[in-house]
């Protein structure tokens, strides 16, 4: 019961933080991540708020899960609802920045918060977000690499979002190249007991390619984890 409550709290805090980081990126005006470029462009063309546009796209992506035979979890549904509400609520009170230094600080802070929030909500292990599930489902069904599938999806939504009027800028570049390393750093500095609560510490990582790790030499001391036979 205690563990379930902690995972639920990690999920909720992560999703709220993620939605808030989206709103801060929007207010900075320096560019959004690829999916949010699409959300903003769709909102601009339809008159929807960006939060509603996020939810509409999330539901549409969930429908694409059907032929992929993905199964949503409570975290999947919460992802659609909580992020949409949070981003619109945050945009309602966040002021427009007046100077470039403030805008840059908001952009950098938003990317950092996004990374921490990602560790929390995905690590809760209660179901992937719609967009994450689309990527993993396509990888499973097509046999293509994660890198190729993710790049293809994000390049497509970025291009469409830009054509619809979404904001592309330095923030888009910073997010694209910074979010992965920041998530990795967050995992490294997060206490193990918190990772265990959120779910990261109980998931056995899978290698993307066999070349990413080297076999442990027979002369070295055996690893403490009996399930691990390679070192990265």
Can you write the helix and strand succession as a string?
A: HHHHHHHHHEE
Structural class, judged by helices and strands?
mainly alpha
- Please bin the fraction of helical residues: 55-70%
Report the strand count. Answer: 2
Using only CA atoms, what is the Rg?
Answer: 19 Å
The major β-sheet equals: 2 strands, antiparallel
Principal-axis shape equals globular
Region (Disordered): 211-232
Protein name: Integral membrane protein
Transmembrane segments: 47-66, 73-94, 100-122, 159-183
Keywords: Membrane, Transmembrane, Transmembrane helix
Keywords:
two-stranded antiparallel ribbon; 9 helices; 232 residues; Integral membrane protein; globular; membrane; transmembrane helix; disordered C terminus; 2 strands; YczE/YyaS-like; transmembrane
